[in-house]
Write a structure and sequence with these properties.
about 200 residues, alpha/beta, 5-stranded parallel sheet, globular, binds dephospho coenzyme A, binds adenosine-5'-triphosphate, transferase, Dephospho-CoA kinase, Depp_CoAkinase
Length: about 200
């Protein structure tokens, strides 16, 4: 039986970093953030619904989606975030399921679904096992501000839009502590794969 691993965490906790470690082991990853970009390409249904709901102000001059602008709207307004989620999540979910199915049909025994909002969006039924990438609040804030060049307020807004990472711990089957070096993170991943009898 193929095994689907759900990879989750909080914003800037290190999911993409760990996802790349899976890819290095030839375990394919279906990434919700990448799929979320595909479903809003100009002309898609999702794109049209977003423009209808949020107006032309969320577009760049070439009519592509202005991501920082949309982010600044939805991360500080729960109602607007819900509207965005209602428009985008069904499309993201069905495309992710399709991509996962394709990897399994190609013969992969293990596929990773990287889903930041796995718990918030109640998607745990899509996966067999859950790996949580964990960082403490201080590290999370610092890495998010550095990576996205956000002010402290903007970064705190983004972190607060998700379930607190510490509440995700008890809901996960394995935890990777990513506060430390990348080699320590990789070592923990290898231990989990061994414990779950996943060849790597
Ligand atoms: C608002 C958008 C355009 C901002 O784009 P931006 O390039 O700044 O961020 P990016 O897409 O790289 O997302 C970064 C992280 O933000 C967090 N995040 C994104 N969307 C949401 C959301 N609706 N609620 C809570 N956290 C979110 C996730 O941890 C994600 O990994 C973008 O995040 C988006 O399209 N969000 C809606 C789709 C979604 O919910 N994606 C999350 C995975 S299902
Ligand atoms: N162990 C580590 N040591 C130092 N920096 C790290 C470590 N792990 C990740 N980072 C850095 O922290 C930032 C966040 O990591 P990453 O992009 O992997 O997180 P993410 O969970 O995928 O984020 P998002 O939810 O926003 O997609 C990146 O700039 C990354 O280079």
């Amino acid at each position: 039986m193929p095994q689907i691993i759900g990879l989750t965490g909080g914003i800037a906790s290190g999911k993409s970093t760990v996802a790349n470690m899976f890819r290095d082991k030839n375990i394919p990853v279906v990434d919700a953030d990448i799929v979320a970009r595909e479903v809003v390409e100009i002309g898609t249904n999702t794109y049209k619904q977003l423009v209808e709901t949020f107006g032309n102000e969320i577009l760049n001059s070439d009519r592509s989606l202005n991501r920082p602008k949309l982010g600044s709207i939805i991360f500080q307004d729960e109602e607007k975030r819900k509207q965005l989620n209602n428009i985008m999540h069904p499309a993201i979910r069905s495309k992710m399921k399709e991509q996962t199915k394709q990897y399994i049909e190609k013969g992969h025994e293990t596929v990773v679904m990287d889903i930041p909002l796995l718990f918030e969006s109640k998607l745990t039924h899509l996966v067999d096992k859950i790996v949580l990438v964990f960082v403490n609040e201080k590290t999370q804030l610092k890495r998010l501000m550095n990576r996205n060049e956000l002010s402290e307020k903007e970064a705190v807004d983004r972190i607060s839009s998700q379930m607190p990472l510490k509440d995700k711990v008890a809901l996960s089957h394995a935890i990777i502590d990513n506060n430390d070096t990348l080699s320590y993170t990789k070592q923990q991943l290898e231990e989990i794969l061994q414990e779950w009898h996943i060849p790597n």
